[in-house]
Known about the structure:
2 copies of one chain form a homodimer.
Chain A: E1 3-9, H1 13-24, E2 28-34, H2 38-46, E3 52-53, H3 57-62, E4 66-69, H4 76-83, E5 92-95, H5 101-107, E6 116-118, E7 120-122, E8 143-146, H6 154-166, E9 170-173, H7 176-199, H8 211-217, H9 224-233, H10 235-257, H11 261-278
Parallel strand pairs in A: 1-2, 1-4, 2-3, 4-5, 5-6, 8-9
Antiparallel strand pairs in A: 7-8
Helix pairs in contact in A: 4-5, 7-10, 10-11
Amino acid sequence: xxxxxxxxxxxxxxxGSIGLAARRGKLxxxxxxxxxxxxxIERALxxxxxxxxxxxxxxxAWAAGLIVVATPVDQIASAVLLFAPRCRPGTxxxxxxxxxxxxxxxxxxxxxxxxxxxxxxxxxxSEKSGVEHSDADLFRDRVTVLTPTARTDAVALDKVxxxxxxxxxxxxxxxxxxxxxxxxxxxxxxxxxxxxxxxxLPDELLELAASGFCDTTRVAAGDPSIWTPIxxxxxxxVRESFATLRARLDLFQDALENDNAEQVNELLTEGKxxxxxxxx
Amino acid sequence: xxxxxxxxxxxxxxxGSIGLAARRGKLxxxxxxxxxxxxxIERALxxxxxxxxxxxxxxxAWAAGLIVVATPVDQIASAVLLFAPRCRPGTxxxxxxxxxxxxxxxxxxxxxxxxxxxxxxxxxxSEKSGVEHSDADLFRDRVTVLTPTARTDAVALDKVxxxxxxxxxxxxxxxxxxxxxxxxxxxxxxxxxxxxxxxxLPDELLELAASGFCDTTRVAAGDPSIWTPIxxxxxxxVRESFATLRARLDLFQDALENDNAEQVNELLTEGKxxxxxxxx
Lengths: 280, 280
């Protein structure tokens, strides 16, 4: 047992998967969930993702050793600031948001004495959302980024690291800004490009879309209410990554215009080399 | 039996899959393969993708009722023009190339009397290549495009259509130019964008690449020696599709610069609507 009570704020795909994994791994004596609606809590209970729904915000906060905030990113900081004053000293609060600088910056100066915030982001998910797609193995063999700053409590960081490791996740430590610049390239820009490729396809060409198009655009099926705030919160890094993409697309375009097969081949070979390094 | 002898020129992923499917479905009394090397033929024989390797070009051509050319696109027209003069009258030649206008334009005026060419493209494949990845079900529930022109023999078109239908493929008829403009949007541009996204990722960020990045860039692992000639042959349509993509990326970029969450949400919602229409 790492914690007596684990409270999960937001029991969607990520929060539900944390609940399933924590209950299976016996990481906490009880797992409490806070959802947007009574229906969300009923579904999470029925799926075994939580032991109980919290009766009130006070209840979820006071009892918890660890609070994980797994709401859309635009609601994380406000949730943390709502809960923190109601926490016992020693309570650790972490989150699962896909952006880190805005969230960490908004909350870490405003923690009550003895309540510790550790920014986190498990690099796991799906184009699907909702607790019904939860998976106790969602974090296994995946990377979870934690983004401590000079203000972060070392013991709290260790405990949150151990929490994710117990789910089979590999923990990576970086600054909030390094995280945001990195995921702009690995997640936010690709999401936006996938959405553009899907969005520009006329209906009459759907029948020409085969497995390659389906792969390339799969993330575009993600919930816009989750992805819009991610892109807005990380707008600066996403815009910088845009410039890098455009420069690379220019190289392809120049090569095509100049009938330069050698350069097209070099660009494709470089892309293949890096993609092969990833696997999957 | 649709044909006595089926000859397959190029026994890689596509040619090998055609051989496996044709042998399983008993579409031909024998399936002959022509490969680049004796080793290619040995592997195709060992995998059961062909009954026999052709002893010579003359042998493969003369005996065949149907010749399917499944080489990289830059070798298709020259292969067809090499084989055609050695074919019996009544022989049908088709291909599996991902571009159509250049190939159809290069060969259809130059067929000997009684030898019929029908341009084709099964929208199936994988980032993997080579006969060892062949799959007798590769074409099942997929679309195969055939691109007849005013010069195409109607009986040959019917036979080639039936050939693909027997593999479980749905046959779509369009002009070579419609095909090329369509696959520029559904395949060639997405390939190039996936390659750019993979190619611009610094090695130190590989650990931040999760399942979304893997999906979005999967096709970038495709063989550059197959993809370079595809992009070169369809350069005009690919360049037109570039302009469409840039216009759509501009909308995202403007919305991010103007902190316009509503517009980002609208663009993502449009992308999701079209991606959801696809499934998969």
